[in-house]
Design brief:
Belongs to the UPF0162 family. It comes from Mastigocoleus testarum BC008. The chain has two domains: about 5-180, C8orf32 fold (Roll); about 220-275, no CATH class. It is about 60% helix and about 5% strand. The protein contains twelve helices and six strands. The protein has helices spanning about 5-15, 25-35, 40-55, 65-80, 95-100, 105-120, 160-170, 185-200, 205-220, 225-235, 240-255, 260-275, and strands spanning about 80-85, 105, 125-130, 135-140, 145-150, 155. The strands form three sheets. A two-stranded parallel ribbon has the order 1-2. Helix 5 (about 95-100) links the parallel strand 1 (about 80-85) and strand 2 (about 105). Helix 10 (about 225-235) packs antiparallel against helix 11. The chain is globular.
Length: about 280
C-alpha cells in the first residue's frame, strides 16, 4: 500500500477499534492533505484549551440540559461559532482547522467540535446521522433529546427531527427510527469525506475528489459504490487500466445494479481507447 505520510497516519488512526479512534486527529489528517503546512497538535491543544476554559464555568448542577446550555453559551456566544449559511458548500467548512480558525462550519464539522469539547468535560455525546442534517445527542439512554449544532446548539426532540426532515426535502418523509441511530466514528469520518467528494466533483476538482474516495475506501474497503466512483474518477483523469480494473470488479460484485448497462458501455469505450 503506497500511501502518503499523512494518509498513512489517517489509515493507522482509523484501523483502531472504533471507540479508540481519535476523531479530531483523524479529521485533521483529512484536512492536512488540503493544508499540508498545518500541525494537527496545535488544533488538538486548542480544543483542550477550550474544554479547560469551559470546565471553569460549569455549575455544580450537572443536569444534561444545564451542561448543554453552558456549552452553547461558550461556543456560540463567547467564541462566536456559527453555521455558514452564506457559503454552505465552501470546502473550508469541512476542514477542522479552518472551522476552528474561522468559527464557521456545517452540521458535521460543528458537531465534531461540540463532541470533542463535550468529551473533554466528561459529558459524552454521540453523532446522529440523520439524512440531510447531522445532529448529536447525549449518550444517555433515558434522555431523548438532540442538539442541532448548526443552529446554535438548539435542543430538539424526535418530532422536531421529523419536521426538519420534511423541511429539508420539501415533502413528507416516512420517518424511520434508524435515522436517529448513533453513528460510529468511521461513519462520522465517511460523512465528512462524502461532503468533500460531492463538492469536488461539482467543482470539477477530480484529483481531490479521487482523494476523498480513496480515503473512504480505507475506512470501508467493501464500499462498492466508492469502488465504482473511484473507477469513474480514474477514467476522467485518463488512468484507463486502473479504471477498467475498478469498474470490472464493481460489476462482478454488483451484477444486478441499476447502472450495469451504463458501466458496461463505459468499459467498452475504455477498452477501445486502450486498443487504439
Amino acid at each position: 500500500m503506497n500511501l502518503s505520510s499523512v494518509r498513512q497516519k489517517f489509515y493507522q488512526e482509523t484501523q483502531k477499534p472504533d471507540e479508540d479512534i481519535d476523531l479530531a486527529r483523524a479529521s485533521l489528517y483529512i484536512a492536512q492533505e488540503e493544508y499540508p503546512e498545518i500541525d494537527p497538535e496545535v488544533y488538538i491543544q486548542t480544543l483542550d484549551g477550550m474544554a479547560q476554559e469551559l470546565s471553569k464555568r460549569l455549575p455544580e448542577n450537572k443536569y444534561p440540559l444545564v451542561i448543554i446550555q453552558n456549552i452553547n453559551q461558550y461556543l456560540y456566544d463567547d467564541l462566536g461559532f456559527n453555521g455558514n449559511n452564506s457559503d454552505y458548500y465552501d470546502t473550508q467548512n469541512s476542514f477542522l482547522n479552518k472551522v476552528i480558525e474561522r468559527r464557521l462550519g456545517i452540521p458535521i464539522s460543528l458537531s465534531l467540535i461540540y463532541l470533542e469539547i463535550a468529551r473533554r468535560i466528561n459529558f459524552p455525546m454521540v453523532g446522529v446521522g440523520m439524512p440531510g442534517h447531522f445532529l448529536i445527542r447525549p449518550e444517555i439512554e433515558e434522555i431523548e433529546i438532540f442538539v442541532d449544532t448548526f443552529n446554535r446548539g438548539e435542543v430538539i426532540f424526535t418530532q422536531d427531527c421529523q419536521d426538519r426532515l420534511n423541511q429539508i426535502y420539501q415533502k413528507n418523509i416516512v420517518f424511520k427510527p434508524e435515522y436517529l441511530a448513533a453513528v460510529t466514528k468511521k461513519k462520522f469520518l465517511a460523512r465528512i469525506l462524502d461532503n468533500l467528494k460531492i463538492i469536488y466533483v461539482h467543482q470539477q476538482e477530480i484529483e481531490k475528489a479521487l482523494g476523498a474516495v480513496e480515503r473512504k475506501l480505507l475506512l470501508f474497503p467493501d464500499a462498492h459504490i466508492e469502488l465504482r466512483d473511484r473507477g469513474l474518477l480514474l477514467f476522467q483523469l485518463g488512468y484507463f487500466p486502473q479504471a477498467i480494473r475498478d469498474l470490472e470488479t464493481y460489476l462482478e460484485i454488483e451484477p444486478n445494479s441499476e447502472d450495469v448497462s451504463t458501466i458496461r458501455s463505459l468499459l467498452s469505450q475504455l477498452r477501445k481507447n486502450i486498443d487504439n
